[in-house]
Every structure is written in structure tokens, then in C-alpha cells.
Amino acid sequence: MPSATPPSSEPGVTPPDPAPPKIANPLPAGVLSGDPCRALTPGQVTNLLGAPANGEAQDTGLAHMCHWANLDRGSSISVQFVYAWPDGLRNVYAKKNKGFFKELDPVQGYPVTAYGPEDERPTGRCGVAVGVADNAAFEADVTISRSKVGQADACDSARRISDAVITTLKGGA
Predict the structure, then answer these.
(1) pLDDT band for position 55 (50/70/90)?
(2) Is residue 80 one of the residues assigned to a domain?
(3) Where residue 82 sits, what CATH number does that domain have?
(4) Residue 130 β-bridge partners
(5) Which of 9, 37, 77, 152 could pair covalently with 66 via S-S, beta carbons 3.0-4.6 A apart?
(6) What's this model's pTM, rounded to 2 decimal places?
(7) Contact between residue 48 and residue 27 where contact means Cβ atoms under 8 Å apart
(8) CB 91, CB 139: distance < 8 Å
(9) Cross-strand pairs, 79
């Protein structure tokens, strides 16, 4: 009898689905067209970094980004509204076998995926992509404080940042 699943490189292992989860309750299309430095309130930034910080905005050529840092602790946060991902998380899932890729628990019902060329958690860094619509996603990157490296999971911190961003985006939606 033929197998219903595509062949895998390992016997008995079903390859993961390359398609991202569908977004059940998408945010409005324009929600990621605003200023990423407004994605976190000053109070959220202070809570996440342990001190107030001003956001520095830039256009990376792929996304509108805002970066906050606490130089005393060696920690930082970046939020990117990625305009180069017209298919939302599908752009991230297309690279799932080319480096680090880990699906995390959803945040407020939105899928979260840690990814990158390699797993940087041992150095205190992690980037996550969050799908807010089938055609829209943002990225949250974190470098945890030097004192927390090896004690805290940077991807958990990036997920918390994503939760704060979604809360702010929903407030403006």
C-alpha cells in the first residue's frame, strides 16, 4: 500500500510541513506599515531592558526596524516590520531546513518561529518571526544581558517581546 506521506531522508520520520500555520484572526493589512519604534511603549522597553532606552529607526532594505539597547547590561531589542515578506511566515518556512528553525508556542494566537542561519541561543541571541496575517509578519530580535547568557533562553525573551508588540499593534488596529 502506498504511503500517504512524502518520503523522508530518515526511515520512520515524516518531514515537517513546509507551510506555516494559517492565521485565524489576522490583524489589518496596514498594521505593519507604521513606525516600528512605536511597536513598544516606553514602559514596555523599560520593563524588557531593565532601563529606559530610545529607539533608533532605520530601513534595512528588507524591513523598517527599530533598535533599543541597554549598553550597561549588554542587552538589546530590535523589532522589524518586514516588507520583504509578502507571503508572511511562508518566507521563513521556505528556509526551515537551512539553519536554525524552531516553532515556539503561539503568542495571543499568532504563530512564532525562532530562526536564523544558526542557533545563537548559547551566545544570548535569538530572532523570531511572528505571523500576524497570512501575508504579513514581523521579526523580534533580542540579545539578553551578559549576566543571563547560559541561564535564560533568548528565544523565550524574543517571544515575550513579540507578545508586547502584538499588544501594541492590537491597540492601534
Answers:
(1) very high
(2) yes
(3) 3.40.1000
(4) 112, 138
(5) 37
(6) 0.85
(7) no
(8) no
(9) 66, 140
